[in-house]
Amino acid sequence: MKIECFEDIEGWQEARVLARMVYEVSSKGRFARDLRLRSQIEDAAASVMANIAEGFDAGSDAEFIRFLGYARRSASEVQSHLYIALDRGYVTQEEFEAIYQKATQVKKLINGFIRYLRQSCRKTA
To answer: Looking at CB atoms within 10 Å, which of 18, 19, 48, 110 has the fewest?
Structure first.
């Protein structure tokens, strides 16, 4: 499948699911009242999507790869914040595992896309 817009990128699509999952749990109960943690985890989840989209229009594969790195790090940030949410009792073990695994999947998709772009750069160089 040819990628014509950032919405075609599987990593972005799954990052959107990740953001939805994060926003769903962070808007409930005591989590919703922990404004600092809520803001940090929501911002990190949104950043995954945003950096993939921004990188798509960056103008070069090298620049796109840089933005994909930011997206991957934001997914790791989501995972780290999840531990605090779990330790504070804001999320259940099941919610933690589901979101953590989704973030892992997103990072794997991003890593695969980075590999693809690096190979593409070598072929054109």
So the answer is: 19
Which amino acid is present at 92? T
Instruction: Domains for the chain: give ranges and CATH numbers.
Output: 10-124 (1.20.1440.60)
Q: Report how far apart, in Å, the C-alpha atoms of 91 and of each of 5, 18, 29, 88, 123 are.
A: 34, 15, 10, 8, 46
Residues 65 and 72 sit within 8 Å (Cβ to Cβ): no
Pick from 42, 51, 39, 50: which is nearest to 23 by CA?
A: 42
CA distance 11 to 71: 10
At 122, the pLDDT band (50, 70, 90 cuts) reads low
Residue 121 pLDDT: 66
Q: What is the pTM of this model?
A: 0.94
Q: Which amino acid is at 97?
A: E
CA angle 69, 99, 28 (to 5 degrees): 120
